[in-house]
């Protein structure tokens, strides 16, 4: 009992519930249209007595009610229970038509509808239970009709007289063969839908796993980018420190600053050196700037030109450049 309650009242995740409700709505309108069509055939069939017509219309109305109640329960989160109520109506309706028209026709094939509905809306294993139920119902109605356990079919007198020969092996085998064929159809439908559903679930599971892996890769990539950004910021700070250390401006007396130049000098460093010296003159209000080029390994024309440009800039700021 507890397991049945767990199956009937099981809860679904919000995303999965919304997906199945979309399928449920489409199946609901198909079933409602089919039931209304069957109720119309009940009204226009002149062979049906008033009592049988009333039973058919009442059964159709009950089927519609069960269909909408099942959908309402599904929306409230009782999806499995709602699906069970949804398929009860068609099972009863098909049984009603078999009772009035017999098993030798297209009506018993409609039993495949509940099997398909359950396979689509619920877990695939549920469809085998519905297929087994419909198989037993069809076989039972067929045997009751052949051996006249009940006066079936009620509205087909010719078929009623035909079944009054149950000892005829041809009649019996023909009826049982037809029932077995439909039983195979029910179960084959359940099996094929189970296979298709399992393949779909496996594809969805793989897709979710790949999405999770992609999400993890994206998070690692974002973390790596953040670490690289922090490393670049640290490197930029280090370069600023190195730049300042490579072009130190040292105040040695009031109004006198010393700028020792160390290492090779290129155009980029020459621009940085000039910028540092000019800022140093302004910051320290220097009147004299001593440029010590002892640490420069070679003074070529480009270095000399950079020194001349620096000296001109210092003079423009009102200070005297001194090269040592």
The number of distinct β-strands equals: 4
Low-confidence stretches: 1-9
Per DSSP, the total helix count is 10
> Gyration radius, to the nearest Å?
46 Å
The helix fraction, in percent, is over 70%
Describe the biggest sheet?
Answer: 4 strands, mixed
H-E order:
HHHHHHHHEEHEHE
Mean pLDDT: 76
Percent range for β-strand residues: 5-15%
Distance between the termini: 102 Å
The outline comes out as rod-shaped
Structural class: alpha/beta
Strand order of the largest sheet: 1-2-3-4
Give the SSE layout.
Elements: H1 2-8, H2 14-44, H3 50-75, H4 79-101, H5 112-121, H6 125-146, H7 157-162, H8 169-246, E1 250-253, E2 256-262, H9 267-284, E3 288-295, H10 301-316, E4 320-323
Helix pairs in contact: 2-3, 2-4, 3-4, 4-5, 4-6, 5-6, 5-8, 6-8, 9-10
Overview features:
324 residues
How would you describe the overall organization of this protein?
With 324 residues, the chain is α/β, with parallel strands linked by helices. The termini are far apart. The radius of gyration is 46 Å and the shape is rod-shaped. The protein has ten helices and four strands, in the order ααααααααββαβαβ. The chain has a four-stranded mixed sheet with strand order 1-2-3-4, covered by helices on one side. The longest helix has 78 residues. Helices cover 73% and strands 7% of the residues. Strand 2, helix 9 and strand 3 form a beta-alpha-beta unit.
Give a summary of the structure in a few sentences.
The protein has 324 residues and is an alpha/beta fold. It is 73% helix and 7% strand. Mean pLDDT is 76; it is low at 1-9.
């Amino acid at each position: 009992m507890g397991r049945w309650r767990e199956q009937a009242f099981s809860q679904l995740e919000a995303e999965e519930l919304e997906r199945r409700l979309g399928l449920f709505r489409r199946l609901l309108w198909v079933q409602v249209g089919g039931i209304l069509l069957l109720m119309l055939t009940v009204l226009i069939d002149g062979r049906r007595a008033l009592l049988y017509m009333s039973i058919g219309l009442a059964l159709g109305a009950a089927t519609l009610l069960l269909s909408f109640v099942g959908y309402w329960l599904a929306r409230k989160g009782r999806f499995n229970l709602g699906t069970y109520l949804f398929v009860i109506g068609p099972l009863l309706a098909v049984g009603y038509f078999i009772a009035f028209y017999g098993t030798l026709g297209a009506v018993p094939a409609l039993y495949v509808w509940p099997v398909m509905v359950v396979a689509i809306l619920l877990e695939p294993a549920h469809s085998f239970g519905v297929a087994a139920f419909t198989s037993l119902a069809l076989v039972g109605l067929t045997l009751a009709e052949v051996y006249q356990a009940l006066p079936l079919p009620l509205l087909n007198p010719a078929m009623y007289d035909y079944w009054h020969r149950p000892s005829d092996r041809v009649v019996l085998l023909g009826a049982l063969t037809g029932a077995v064929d439909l039983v195979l159809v029910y179960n084959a439908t359940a099996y094929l839908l189970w296979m298709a559903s399992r393949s779909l679930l496996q594809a969805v599971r793989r897709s979710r796993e790949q999405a999770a892996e992609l999400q993890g890769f994206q998070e690692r990539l974002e973390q790596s980018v953040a670490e690289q950004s922090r490393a670049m910021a640290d490197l930029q700070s280090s370069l600023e420190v190195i730049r300042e250390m490579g072009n130190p401006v040292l105040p040695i007396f009031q109004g006198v600053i010393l700028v020792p130049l160390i290492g090779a000098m290129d155009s980029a460093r020459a621009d940085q050196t000039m910028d540092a010296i000019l800022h140093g003159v302004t910051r320290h209000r220097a009147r004299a700037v001593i440029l010590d080029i002892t640490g420069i390994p070679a003074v070529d024309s480009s270095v000399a030109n950079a020194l001349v440009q620096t000296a001109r800039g210092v003079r423009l700021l009102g200070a005297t450049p001194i090269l040592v």
